[in-house]
Amino acid sequence: MSRVFGGFTPRYPLLEWYRRNEGIITLIGLMIGVALIVTAVIVSMGNRITDGEVYQKLYEPERRWTTQSSIAVGTDPPVYVPMTHHHFDDEDWIIWIRNTGEDNKERTRKLYVSNAVYTSLEIGDWYNYSATSASANDPETKTRERR
Predict the structure, then answer these.
(1) Which domain holds residue 26?
(2) Per residue in 5-38, pLDDT tens?
(3) What was the pLDDT predicted at 54?
(4) 71 lies in some domain
């Protein structure tokens, strides 16, 4: 240990305990973090509705845009190199459904659907969505997997 404060070495029992048990503390922290993430995922999945009344529809056309940024290269003086980023967002067909659960609470859900499903539905129609019953060739499934 290095000597500080004119030859006096201060002792910090809590710091020494942490250094001795650092691996265990890190492991416990990771376990708590994983438990919190798993809990959040389970809770968020429990409130999803699979069927309901269509109350809103939205079509988002394909769009492309460009942004520019720069990075600094070197330090004395830095040279800023411009960078161009090209972005693409394909067209989307979105519906919102709502349903009242057993607890009389209204739940809503935003769904990305295929063009065929979007055009076949009108506001006020009942839509039943089941991710497990969708086939691999269903355009709705392909859209979901691409995201």
Answers:
(1) 13-45
(2) 555 555 777 777 777 888 887 888 888 999 999 8
(3) 93
(4) yes
Phi, psi of 59 (to 5 degrees): -110, 125
Q: Are residues 58 and 24 in the same domain?
A: no
List the one residue out of 73, 76, 142 whose CA is nearest residue 113.
142
Query: Tokens 């989307």 map to which residue?
Result: 92
Q: Are residues 36 and 71 in the same domain?
A: no
**110-132 pLDDT, tens per residue?**
889 989 889 999 999 999 887 54
What is the domain count for the chain?
2
Contacts 24+ apart (CB under 8 A), 89-93: 89/60, 89/62, 89/63, 89/64, 90/62, 91/59, 91/60, 91/61, 91/62, 92/58, 92/59, 92/60, 92/143, 93/57, 93/58, 93/59, 93/60, 93/117, 93/118
- Structural domain includes residue 5: no
- Confirm whether 112 is domain-assigned: yes
Within the chain, where are the H helices? 13-20, 22-46, 115-120, 139-146
For the stretch 60-91, pLDDT in tens is 999 999 999 999 888 888 899 999 999 999 99
Say if CB 60 and CB 92 are below 8 A apart: yes
